[in-house]
Amino acid sequence: MHCPFCRHSDSRVVDSRAADDGSSIRRRRQCPDCGRRFTTVETAALMVIKRSGVTEPFSREKVISGVRKACQGRPVTEDALAQLGQRVEECVRASGSAELSTHDVGLAILGPLKDLDVVAFLRFASVYQAYDGLSDFEAAIAELRGAEQPVPAPGDDGATVAVPAAAP
Prior knowledge:
alpha+beta
């Protein structure tokens, strides 16, 4: 670690502490050449493997941006989106893996998003899980309601109604 003051190529660690959120380590260092102290913060790199095979660093901002699109027009605050982003990052870091697929990140988003807003959840899930038709939406809604079968629409008691034939 180069000293930021004199650019000496070495430094000595004086103190190490875990950051408040536990995802990084804060180290106090001292330069043996000029004697000045400085702080460094070390974090583990979390990489995301995209469908194309390209690997890029995990970005909480990308998660929030994607979820923000699903929440458009919904009563969701920026603070709630920031908290969701933090929950997702904590979830993927807790997996213990240094590399995750975009599928794993998407799965980590679905849980907190369902708690935040069910309409946004359905929007996000419809794109993420590639819903093909109404039956996929009905199944997801039924799952959200805790039932295995879709719930009939209001006023639909399931009975058939006889419709008189039109006169010729």
